[in-house]
Design a protein that fits this description.
The chain is α+β, with helices and mostly antiparallel strands. 28% of the residues lie in helices and 49% in strands. It contains two helices and four strands; from the N terminus they run βαββαβ. It has a four-stranded antiparallel beta sheet. Strand 2 and strand 3 form a beta hairpin. Helix 1 runs antiparallel to helix 2. The chain is globular, with a radius of gyration of 13 Å.
Length: 96
């Protein structure tokens, strides 16, 4: 099982329910590919370093995942289709 770190930038006007729906989607995709969300950290609303579209702020959310490598493509495609996600970054952590 591989370790991944996912950072989500979610729409700044998204309430807890909408943010929870995005995080639940991440959990579901990870579970479908034999994995799990190991840890989460909600950083709250922060100012962006540069403007993304019309947004100058976003809700930041960090998730640590364990899943098989085939799930990354499905997860990234799912996040691209989610309207509340402005940007995301999924990286594989070293195996040391």
């Amino acid at each position: 099982m591989r370790q991944y770190e996912l950072v989500l930038l979610v729409h700044p006007d998204a309430d807890e329910e909408r943010l929870g729906a995005v995080v639940e989607r991440v959990r579901r995709v990870a579970a479908d590919h034999g994995g799990d969300v190991v840890g989460e950290n909600n950083w709250g609303k922060r100012k962006l370093a540069y403007k993304i579209g019309r947004f100058t702020e976003a809700n930041y959310h960090l998730a640590n995942l364990e899943m098989e490598g085939t799930g990354t493509t499905v997860l990234e495609n799912s996040l691209k289709l989610t309207d509340d996600v402005i940007r995301h970054l999924l990286i594989r952590l070293d195996e040391d």
